[in-house]
TrEMBL record:
It comes from Methanoculleus chikugoensis. Residues 24-183, 218-392 form the Type I restriction modification DNA specificity domain. Keywords: Coiled coil. It comes from the Archaea. Pfam families: Methylase_S (PF01420). InterPro entries: Restrct_endonuc_typeI_TRD, Type-I_RS_S_subunit. Residues 376-403 form a coiled coil. This is Type I restriction modification DNA specificity domain-containing protein.
Amino acid sequence: MTDRQAGVEDVPPGYKRTDLGVIPDEWETKRLGNIAAIRNQKVVPSSVDPDTPCVQLEHIGQGNGRLLECTTARCSTSSNYRFFAGNVLFGRLRSYLRKFWHADRDGICTTEIWPLVADAAQVDSAFLFAIVQSDRFVEAASISYGTHMPRTDWDIMQNFEICLPPLHEQRAIVTALSDVDGLIGALDALIEKKRAIKQAAMQQLLTGKKRLPGFAGEWETKQLGDHATLIRNGTTYVASLRDGVPITRIETISSGFVDFSKVGYAKYSKVVESYKLQPGDILYSHINSIDHIGKVALVSDVQELYHGMNLLMIRSGNNTNSKWLFYVLNSDFSRNWARSIAKQAVSQASINTKEIKTFSIPTPPLPEQTAIAAVLSDMDAEIAALERRREKAKQIKQGMMQQLLTGRIRLPSVGGVSTQ
């Protein structure tokens, strides 16, 4: 029986069969522990120069391989790893598996991060960085937890098998992937620029410091309660599995929009039905950590949703454009107001309904509200289109990695042939 008859992948000229599949003849299969190691050089912050960056999980960008910020003062744990420029930093916890950084400087990091050190004689550190970004690596890391903590376990991951091309081909692959990284980086920068422009526009348009063409006259100052026909908390409910109706939880709007992957489910009842949300309703976080207090999300008609406890629902009246009101509540001056009046406990802050109703809002006539909302909506649409382009570029990169890191497609610059 031939390989094809047996359902086994054919081996074309210049390739060989391995446990990882068919790979080029000059490639090898190696275990991660044979080509890299954790730099397990523990230090305490007090023993490090104050200008040395201390990296925690929140400092590493999600999925973009960039360092967002870091300060030594925030690294207060007694045990930390030292790392050096060229090391590959990788988040170990379940929700941080796609946080990674190819270090461009020396520093220290918490033990929730692995500083991986490449064996330079076998693997280029940039190629190792590509490996840890691959879906296959992340999937393996997500199921390699030890028995005590939800962390990726090195005792398991050091046996992760890798297809390893010669160094010159590794570097050619890295160069090809870096071109896509450049596109993603450019889109990141453009998105941040557009967001900054939008924030500036909100500050100007929502306060009346700048008026749109065709509008004049004085604005009124109204309270939030004047704009709403209903402000209320959600219903308590009997939790259900996914066969119930989707209902909001406090984390449903944690990203500033309605995230249906973070809803709960409730058993349907007449009481729950009375809390069905309408398009244009605004969800407001009035019980949360101080950093998240005052976050809002606008309900659309994409999917039915019901209003659960620990978020307020604000429904605007006929003389208020709901999208304009959403932008007002999402503005810096609104969030700052919420933080200033929130009552803080040990782990959370809160604002009551009575206080929220007194929030003072510079209020234009309804036609001007509608025009302002349209301008800001257009900006949001432009940002969303750029985010879709960025996501597509990331998907293209993952597809390239799947092919290039396994040798299924080879670059012309290394004189290889393709199995495709």
